[in-house]
Structures are given as structure tokens and as C-alpha cells.
Design brief:
By secondary structure, the protein is α/β, with parallel strands linked by helices. Helix content is 40%, strand content 16%.
């Protein structure tokens, strides 16, 4: 057990103390805002949601504090169209490399009977699961066949893709399908959407993702403070990290001291990883990007610059990019993944949740990846809502 785990996960005394502070500041806010006011705090990371649910953090906060899951799963928001194109190429003989959760991602329109890359593989396609673009490069270099790496992820994966391109690590037969999404634009979009929701309380604080922030830095979150006037805490992934973030957000609200704070100081700097940022800027350009079930979010994706077109799967395989005019709603009937992703509803509000849509048989993308809120809630009980879920499913009286 490492020191960080001892302090941030196993230290029950610290947990109790943090909970006392949460109740202290929530009581102060209750007196200012009224008994019924609910302070919504949103996270933008699937791992944070996993921590909140797995460790039952929601059961440790008072009833005037609500933790809301926001856009934190890159697999969940990858448009069906691009996975359909990957399936098509795989069935035509192209070797397709991907991550494990992308392998099972269901598409809206089956391609020659295949509803996912997993089903394409079952039909004879050569689809290979890898842990990184480097592993794909090594393997593709051995067989020499036309190959494509499905490059899904947030800012954390972008430096690896950029370095692979800059250092010419990709063999000539391997092309990159860049589907990288950017977190801050999605956060801004979600906050705007939720502000427009009638008869509801606004988001009053943000738990910013730690891993993403190691790349982009704490400074990337200042627009939230400047434009929305709410606290942001860049946070680690142990339960006490999350509790400290909640304490800090409530403290700032109680004292009207709104700013960006880095709680995850053991990994995140204010400026971020400047070298990684430089590599990303060199290789990629920021583009408007489609998010599954949501539509286009301005400046929320990364595409390879024209000077690196020899690595570009879109260029080599003739894959057309989606345009705002061509984009169509791409979730199956009844699926509320888009609303779950934006924090508009809880997973349990979806009529398919743990009925037609389960971790073993996912209907929507949020049930596939372990960073998807639906998958997390399905596996670990919704963090304080396990009884409600059980009642809804008829498992208890």
C-alpha cells in the first residue's frame, strides 16, 4: 500500500473530519440560501464518478448537496458513424486496432449484420485490442497489412498520439483515426445547458478531472470561474480527494471566495505539462466536433493537421468527416445516454437502465465503458441509491 493510498483512501479519521467540514459549510449555506436549496456539484471524469459511487461518497454528504455526473467518458460520446466506418473497414479486410471498451461499443446502424467491432470480429474481421498506439504500431509493423488505430480519448491520450506521429513511430501501413475530445468545451456546454433547465438548481461547483489536468493544467479551468462564477477544484481520485474537493467548493461558496484550486497537487501543476501541450498543438488542430446524441460542440475535438496527412485514416481510407448538416441523432430509441452525459438526468431515470440495457447486454454507449455513468451505477449501485434501484427493479419489498 503506497503513501497516497494510506492518506487519501484508508485514513478513516481524515474521512470523518472532512465529513464534519462538509456538514459545517452546508449548514452555513443553508442559512443563507434556505432550507430547500440544493447545491449541485458536477464532476467531469468517469473515474471520479467511479470513486463517488464505488466508495458511497453520496451517502456521506447532506441532503442539500447533490453530486452530478457530467461528460467524463470519451467512448460514450464517440459518434456511431465513426464506429460504423471502422466496422465497415474491418469487414473489408483492414486490421482495426482499438481499446477494450471501444470493442463492445454498439452502433446505431448495423454494418452487414455487425452492431459492434466485437460482432465484426465474430464475423471474421481482424479487430485487435491494444493498450496504446505504440502497441498497435509494433504489431502493425510485423504484418504489413492496411491497418487503422481508432484513437478515442480525452486530453490524456493526445500527447501519446502526437509523439507517435512526431517521432514517426507509426509504420506506413498504420493510420490514425483521431477521435480525441476536449474536456473544457464539454464542461462549458454542459453548464450552459443545465442553466437553461427550468425549475431546477444550477451547478454551483465543479470537480475538475485530475488526469486531464496533468496535461492542460489548472489554468484551463479559469473560464468557469470567470464566466459562471462558481468554484473549481482539480481533484485526485481517492475518496478523501473527492471529499476534500467538496469541502473546498462549499467553503468557497460560504465565504464568497470563488477560484480554481488544485487539490491534486501531487500530480497537477497550474501550467500543466507544457511539453505535452506543445506536441499536441504541433500535430493537431482544434475543430468543432460531434458528440454522440448531443450534436456539435465548438472547438471540442482534435484533428490531424494537413502536414501530417500521411498518418490520417480519414485521408487514406477516404472516410468522410461528419458535418453539422449531416449529423443525426445517433442513440437507440429510449436511450437517455445524452441526457445522462450532460448531467440532465441520472442513469436510473433511463427506462432502459438494468432492464433492456445491462453491462452484459448494453444498448447505449454509457453502459459499455467503465467510465460511463450507467455502467458505474449498474455495477456499484448508484452510490446511496442502491435501495431505490433495487425497489425499482422489484428486488426488495
Amino acid at each position: 500500500m503506497n503513501v497516497a493510498e494510506l492518506i487519501f483512501r484508508r485514513n478513516i479519521a481524515v474521512t470523518r473530519r472532512l465529513r464534519e467540514y462538509i456538514f459545517k459549510f452546508s449548514d452555513i449555506l443553508r442559512r443563507s440560501y434556505g432550507e430547500d436549496y440544493v447545491f449541485k456539484i458536477m464532476d467531469f471524469c468517469g473515474t471520479h464518478e467511479w470513486t463517488i459511487v464505488h466508495f458511497g461518497v453520496r451517502s456521506l454528504v447532506p441532503n442539500n448537496v447533490e453530486l452530478v455526473a457530467g461528460p467524463g467518458c470519451p467512448v460514450c460520446v464517440t459518434p456511431s458513424y465513426y464506429i460504423e466506418q471502422a466496422i465497415k473497414l474491418a469487414l473489408e479486410g483492414v486490421v482495426v486496432y482499438t481499446y477494450g471498451d471501444v470493442f463492445r461499443l454498439p452502433v446505431l446502424k448495423p454494418v452487414n449484420g455487425a452492431r459492434s467491432l466485437a460482432e465484426a470480429k465474430a464475423l471474421g474481421a481482424d479487430v485487435r485490442i491494444v493498450h496504446s498506439i505504440v502497441h498497435a504500431s509494433i504489431d502493425a509493423g510485423k504484418h504489413g497489412k492496411d491497418s487503422m488505430f481508432v484513437g478515442i480519448g480525452f486530453e490524456t491520450v493526445a500527447p501519446g498520439y502526437a509523439e507517435a506521429v512526431l517521432k514517426n513511430l507509426l509504420p506506413s501501413n498504420l493510420k490514425l483515426m483521431s477521435l480525441v475530445k476536449l474536456t473544457p468545451p464539454a464542461a462549458f456546454y454542459s453548464l450552459d445547458i443545465l442553466r437553461e433547465k427550468p425549475n431546477d438548481y444550477p451547478i454551483m461547483g465543479v470537480i475538475a478531472p485530475g488526469h486531464v489536468s496533468t496535461i492542460i493544467g489548472g489554468k484551463a479551468w479559469t473560464p468557469i470561474v470567470e464566466n459562471y462564477g462558481i468554484p473549481v477544484v482539480v481533484t485526485g481520485f481517492e475518496p478523501n480527494d473527492v471529499l476534500m474537493a467538496i469541502v473546498e467548493i462549499l467553503r468557497q461558496l460560504a465565504r464568497n471566495d470563488i477560484k480554481v484550486v488544485i487539490e491534486y497537487t501531487r500530480a497537477v501543476k497550474w501550467e500543466g505539462d507544457v511539453k505535452a501541450q506543445s506536441s499536441i498543438r504541433t500535430v493537431f488542430e482544434t475543430v468543432d466536433s460531434a458528440w454522440r446524441g448531443i450534436g456539435y460542440i465548438p472547438k471540442s475535438g482534435l484533428a490531424l493537421r494537413p502536414m501530417f496527412s500521411k498518418f490520417d485514416a480519414f485521408e487514406y481510407f477516404g472516410i468522410r468527416e461528419l458535418t453539422p448538416e449531416e449529423w443525426r441523432y445517433d442513440l437507440p430509441p429510449g436511450c437517455k445516454c445524452a441526457e445522462v452525459t450532460l448531467g440532465k438526468v441520472k442513469p436510473t431515470d433511463c427506462p432502459l437502465f438494468m432492464k433492456q440495457c445491462t453491462p452484459d447486454h448494453p444498448v447505449g454507449p454509457c453502459m459499455v465503458s467503465m467510465e460511463g455513468a450507467c455502467a458505474v451505477w449498474a455495477r456499484f449501485g448508484g452510490g446511496g441509491l442502491s435501495v431505490e434501484i433495487a425497489k425499482d427493479l422489484g428486488l426488495v419489498m
